[in-house]
Amino acid sequence: MSGLYLFARIAGTPVAIPTEDVEAVVRMSELSPVPGVAGYVAGLSALRSRVLTIVDASALITGSAPVTIGDDGSKENYAIVCDISGHSYGILVDDVDDIRTVTNPVLPVCGKISEIWLPYVSGAIEDQGQYFLLSLTGLLEQCLVQQAA
Question: Tens digit of pLDDT for each residue in 24-53?
Answer without folding.
Answer: 999 988 888 889 888 899 999 998 888 999
